Amino acid sequence: MNHVDMYRDTGERLFKNGHSIYINYFCESSKPHLHVHDFIEISYVASGSGIHILGDQTYEVQKGDLFLINYNIPHEFRSLDSPSASPLKVYNCVFKPDFIDVNLIDYRDFSDVIQYLSFRSVFSLPSNRIDDVKILGGENYAIEAIYKKMLEEFTNEEEGYIELLRVYLIELLIHIFRSLKKSSNNDSGTISHHAELIDRSIEYLKANYSVGTKLADLASQSFLSPTYYCKLFKDYTGMTVSEYIQKLRVEEACHLLQHTNDKIIVIAQTVGYKDIKHFNEVFKKITGMTPSVYKNRMKQRT
């Protein structure tokens, strides 16, 4: 299934009685169902084996794996299409941030929710651990016990169940942070992994600088939230994504001005600028001169 076939799950069919939370225990199909959604999902693999597709990457999963899936991240779990394979069974906790606190109504990713709730400072977690997609491995009975409690409350709907679900969700988050803290000694490996992700983004930008590239797309390719991706990118390159794209475009424009006879307006369009005035402004900001002055100086040197 390619990305044009994806469907968007708004969560409206899942959420009931005006409460933005949904819990289930699901036996995953082996059929493709790649999708994105307008909510946060925390999924725990309870049994069986299978795969988890995230964007263009495919990961083998097994009992104990837990995934944090933000808004707009293409993904799907699949059981293995084999008679000998145990079907993949997954607990899913689906919620919108405002379920935890009404002040979170405009928040869209797990990392920002954590910052708001100040869990990061409470647990002294390195910031580069928050956005890991897969954060657990092996059996984790405490996590599974929370999911079972949540599913029971969600299913039975006894008086006060929404308040209990809110408490259990916070409990789930706390257990996740404890697991993150235990694994925080592996920061160097995580940093190396994130450097590799940014390197891949840079290669992508070098090949596609002339077309409009959305920040959300770059972040989703790296399986990071846009907020955290921006921080990583700037820490790694010393500039924002937008500044880096402008740098690539101007560098190519300089090359074309020096080695071709193309008109400046044609070069601007070639490197991705539809507005010649904006191109001139960006070019001068980066090089200290207008494209025409740069072209004349290059001609004088030859």
UniProtKB/TrEMBL annotation:
<dbReference type="InterPro" id="IPR018060">
    <property type="entry name" value="HTH_AraC"/>
</dbReference>
<keyword id="KW-0804">Transcription</keyword>
<keyword id="KW-0238">DNA-binding</keyword>
<dbReference type="InterPro" id="IPR009057">
    <property type="entry name" value="Homeodomain-like_sf"/>
</dbReference>
<dbReference type="Pfam" id="PF02311">
    <property type="entry name" value="AraC_binding"/>
</dbReference>
<protein>
    <submittedName>
        <fullName>AraC family transcriptional regulator</fullName>
    </submittedName>
</protein>
<dbReference type="InterPro" id="IPR011051">
    <property type="entry name" value="RmlC_Cupin_sf"/>
</dbReference>
<dbReference type="InterPro" id="IPR014710">
    <property type="entry name" value="RmlC-like_jellyroll"/>
</dbReference>
<keyword id="KW-0805">Transcription regulation</keyword>
<dbReference type="InterPro" id="IPR003313">
    <property type="entry name" value="AraC-bd"/>
</dbReference>
<dbReference type="Pfam" id="PF12833">
    <property type="entry name" value="HTH_18"/>
</dbReference>
<feature type="domain" description="HTH araC/xylS-type">
    <location>
        <begin position="199"/>
        <end position="297"/>
    </location>
</feature>
<dbReference type="InterPro" id="IPR018062">
    <property type="entry name" value="HTH_AraC-typ_CS"/>
</dbReference>
<dbReference type="InterPro" id="IPR020449">
    <property type="entry name" value="Tscrpt_reg_AraC-type_HTH"/>
</dbReference>
